[in-house]
Amino acid sequence: MAFYYSEPSHTFSEYLLVPGYTSPECVPANVSLRTPLVKYRKGAGESPISISIPLVSAIMQSVSNDTLAVALAREGGLSFIYGSQSIESEAAMVARVKGYKAGFVPSDSNLPPEATLQDVLDLKARNGHSTVAVTADGTNQGRLLGIVTSRDYRVSRMDPAVCVSEFMTPREKLITAPEGTSLKEANDIIWDHKLNSLPIVSDDGRLLYFVFRKDYEQHKENPGEMLDSQKRYMVGAGINTKDYEQRVPALIEAGADVLCIDSSEGYSCWQEKTLSFIREKYGESVKVGAGNVVDRDGFLFLAKAGADFVKVGIGGGSICITRETKGIGRGQATALIEVAAARDEYYRETGVYVPICSDGGIVHDYHMTLALAMGADFIMLGRYFARFDESPTSKVLVGGQYMKEYWGEGSNRARNWQRYDLGGGRGLAFEEGVDSYVTYAGPLKDNVAKSLYKVKSTMCNCGVTSIPEFQEKARLTLVSSTSIVEGGYHDVVLKTHGSSAQNG
After folding, report:
1. Nearest to 296 by CA among 261, 329, 345
2. Strands (DSSP E) along 122-246, which ranges?
3. Which of 75, 79, 217, 231 could form a disulfide with 69 if both were Cys (CB 3.0 to 4.6 A apart)?
4. 63 and 41, same domain (yes or no)
5. 269 and 120 in one domain?
């Protein structure tokens, strides 16, 4: 006979937090959101990788590319570059992120000396950058010959066919700095010479980086940046259970700091084989998460198989239709609560703490807070990040409102068959995701700061100043449908809409 759970599964919207005592120390400025990303032995040191904020980006074509990865690392989170692309292109994205040192930026606007003014204008139109490096071979690490900025030309007075070599500022007139220059030293040079940018050049004359005045200032504003031992931005990468023997080495070579198996359902022999390969080849040096699961058994299976963290959630994403098409899944709150209990059980038995990631079900900012209270160490978000400038999708005008495209990995557009494969033939047999729009929300930095201030404020209301303390002391209550209505505005007439809100 089939097993039946006696209690229904619940979503985040069915819970509320009960306030605790707020002491004088419970102010948002004192709240730490630092949290472990990968497993470790408590009492024997910290996690090998901890993130400053409990947010990571979903392994999706419409969310996580190198641009968003850099932006999120600056804020203290981590992106997982999407794996539904060729091994070469994913590795290249990882390498581009690792090419950024804090404050040191590889040049992404480069031309050879025989290029024309029109080439400069076309390049500026494509990437929006006004500083163009002129190198002998036109690459970002070629021998530096000069620089072109908007001060070097006037479109109205120059022939578009004129070569950049005729109007660029040549190398001998540039202020440069040698390889090994610290960020502080670079900033001093910028201010002493009133520069907007400073090229960092190798001993043999090759361009290495630019240091921009604005980037240095931004770096100083982000003390929680995710940086590796070489002061490069940290980045994760998605893998699958099919080509891992080729993809994993390429991503490690490119510099990926952590990997994650991207699958709609993680309680499988395929994930066990993938984890086994990584452990046999790399030992514990390569960090890799696994999932997704929704119960105790699934968590314990992946933890024992060697996962460094475990993702929780099936069917709760805004563009996911797995529950609708296959009838499997579980309410995200219930799944998270059970898996968190299993994680604590596993820690008590082994001394190893395996962090869990809540993936899906986040509709409102307060759901982030609930996920942390219910035991999540960090949260994976797709729709949330897809709305921002830094996501890889196009901004379009729909019905007079700016939107951004957003599609699921199980949609026909993505055709990420590896994520849903069960060992059969290649190809996506049916859709488990949709193609959609999300409301455009502007820059990542501003939105993340606002969301996390809400999280910190709520934690203060609950009398805690850290995520571990929150997980220990939080008090949660199920609410009725009537309570949910009561929680929104009701029995008033909104001025902005001119309509009655009597029923909420």
Report:
1. 345
2. 132-135, 144-148, 169-170, 177-178, 197-201, 207-212, 236-239
3. 79
4. yes
5. no
Rounded to the nearest angstrom, the gap between the alpha carbon of residue 288 and the centroid of all alpha carbons in its chain is 16
* Selected catalytic residue, list 357, 419, 460, 462: 419
Instruction: Pick the catalytic residue from 26, 260, 320, 460.
Output: 320
Give the sign of the dihedral formed by CA 399, CA 402, CA 408, CA 411: positive
Q: What domain range is 178 assigned to?
A: 110-220
Cα atoms found within 13 Å of the Cα of residue 227, Cβ hemisphere only: 15
Amino acid at 22: T
Confidence (pLDDT) at 497: 55
pLDDT (tens digit, 9 = 90+) per residue, 67-120? 999 999 999 999 999 999 999 999 999 999 998 776 787 888 899 999 999 999
For residues 272 and 414, state if they share a domain: yes
| Cis check: omega of the bond before 292, within 30 degrees of 0 | yes
Residue 333 parent element (H or E): helix 332-350
Nearest to 153 by CA among 191, 108, 120: 120
Closest CA to 372 of 384, 358, 359, 385: 358
Whether 481 is in a domain gets the answer: no
Chain segment 398-436, per-residue pLDDT in tens: 988 999 998 877 666 555 545 555 555 555 444 566 677
Cα distances from 81 to residues 74, 346, 438, 443, in angstroms, run 16, 29, 20, 19
Residues 167 and 191 in one domain: yes
CATH number, domain containing residue 283: 3.20.20.70
Residues 133 and 261 occupy one common structural domain: no
Q: Do 213 and 268 share a structural domain?
A: no
**Beta strand 15-17 with 395-398: parallel, antiparallel or unpaired?**
unpaired
Prediction pTM value: 0.81
Domain C-terminal end among 187, 220, 253: 220
Q: How many residues does the chain have?
A: 504
Q: Are residues 170 and 202 in the same domain?
A: yes
H helices of 351-489, in order, are 365-373, 383-386, 417-420, 444-461, 467-473, 481-487
Please compute the mean of the pLDDT values over residues 14-24 and round it to a whole number.
Answer: 96
Domain total for the chain? Answer: 2
For residue 493, tell me if it sits in a domain.
no
Name the domain boundary from 173, 199, 220: 220
How do strand 55-57 and strand 78-81 relate by DSSP bridges?
Answer: parallel
CATH of the domain at 200: 3.10.580.10
Neighbours of 101 (CB within 10 A): 20
143 is catalytic: no
Residue 492 lies in a domain: no
320 noted as active-site residue: yes
Helix %, strand %, coil % of the chain (to 5):
35, 20, 45
